Amino acid sequence: QVQLVESGGGLVQAGGSLRLSCAASPRTFASDVMGWFRQAPGKEREIVAAISWNGAYVFHADSVKDRFTISRDNAKNTVYLQMSSLKSEDTAVYYCACATRPGYYPRTSPSEYDSWGQGTQVTVSS
User: Fold this and answer.
1) Which pLDDT tens digit goes with each residue over 75-125?
2) Neighbouring residues of 27: CB distance < 8 A, sequence distance ≥ 6
3) Element (H or E) spanning 33, and its range?
4) What is the per-residue pLDDT across 18-39, written as a single tens digit (0 to 9) for each?
5) pLDDT confidence of residue 106
6) 113: helix, strand or coil
7) What are phi and psi of 85, to 5 degrees?
């Protein structure tokens, strides 16, 4: 099982930016897909973005397109989520996840991911 550790959450004003990081250990493989999900109080966990380790697949939810960007640094075994133009509705706990089982794109369902980080709180004040 892949161990995932998120960092970078915090409190930011609306319109501001944050960068989340997710360090994966042990080393993941080119077939794995890394995803960022978020869950707000009283709401279901939802996909934010996903990326394959080889970069052939990248996905961003419509709600974050043109504001958030997922990227990876294979040398550091780390995936990032750069968030800009943050809105109050982006407030949630953000989770990093890894899908190691074979599957079909888009990999947007939480049930497709078998390893999860502990989550990091992002709070956007208006």
Assistant:
1) 888 999 999 999 999 999 999 999 988 888 889 999 999 999 999 999 999
2) 77
3) strand 33-39
4) 999 999 987 667 668 999 999 9
5) 85
6) coil
7) 50, 45
Helix (H) / strand (E) element for 120: namely strand 120-125
Nearest Cα to Cα of residue 38 among 29, 47, 51, 30: 47
Could you tell me if 22 and 8 are in contact, meaning their C-beta atoms sit under 8 angstroms apart? no
The pair of structure tokens assigned to 114 is: 């078998």
| Main-chain dihedrals φ then ψ at residue 110, nearest 5 degrees | -55, -30
Per-residue model confidence (pLDDT) at position 74? 83
Q: What is the DSSP letter of 75?
A: G
Residues 6+ apart with CB under 8 A from 15: 85, 86
For 126, the 3-state DSSP assignment is: coil
